[in-house]
Design a protein that fits this description.
Elements lengths: L1 H18 L13 E7 L11 E3 L4 E3 L9 E5 L5 E5 L10 E4 L21 E3 L4 E5 L3 E2 L5 E2 L2 E10 L4 E9 L15
Antiparallel strand pairs: 1-12, 2-3, 2-4, 4-5, 5-7, 6-8, 8-11, 9-10, 11-12
Length: 183
């Protein structure tokens, strides 16, 4: 019994280390910051990418492709908008929250309080955190993807938004730093 009590903490530590995280998955993709451009949904050619798919970590077209997490548009009053799926009538699935922190200071995505129902009005220097549509992770459990974004510019004449984005393409992970996330 003394032997077991003496080595039990070491055994428990080895077991935790061998199992990885509690969800049974480990991150495989390194997070990196990309600079991307999106074009407004309205008054731009249909072939221009107007949306972002967080599981791919890429801008996408919306014609015939609804697997995206948010889109960009400029409304009739000239406001630039990032639209999660709710306001696009695609279900209350993805969402945003504005961050008071600088882009580089955001290290982990919050676990709640994402606005699923309305557009996010943005301008140059807006910083936000995005949550994707629900997905099934490789371990079979429900999850989501998370990203932080920083609007760099909005050009009214071309109806183009340029942003830097760090999209964690590891299902269920909330880490928003460069490199392979640990959480």
């Amino acid at each position: 019994m003394r032997y077991l009590m003496r080595y039990l903490p070491l055994f428990a530590l080895a077991l935790v280390a061998a199992c990885g995280d509690s969800l049974g998955i480990q991150a495989s993709a390194a997070n990196k910051v990309d600079t991307v451009s999106m074009y407004a949904l309205s008054k731009t050619p249909v072939a221009t990418p107007s949306a972002y798919n967080m599981s791919f970590g890429a801008v996408v077209r919306t014609d015939g492709f609804t697997a995206f997490d948010f889109a960009f548009d400029i409304d009739s009053t000239g406001r630039a908008l990032l639209l999660p799926t709710g306001p696009l009538k695609l279900g209350r699935l993805s969402g945003f929250q504005v961050s008071p922190l600088a882009f580089d200071s955001i290290r982990i995505a919050p676990s709640g309080r994402y606005n699923l129902d309305s557009a996010l009005v943005v301008d140059a220097n807006t910083v936000a955190i995005a949550q994707s549509r629900p997905v099934t992770c490789p371990n079979g459990l429900p999850g989501a993807y998370y990203a932080k974004l920083h609007v760099l510019s909005i050009v009214d004449s071309t109806r183009r938004l340029t942003m830097e984005i760090l999209d964690d393409t590891n299902c269920g992970f909330r880490g928003l730093q460069v490199g392979v996330p640990r959480s």
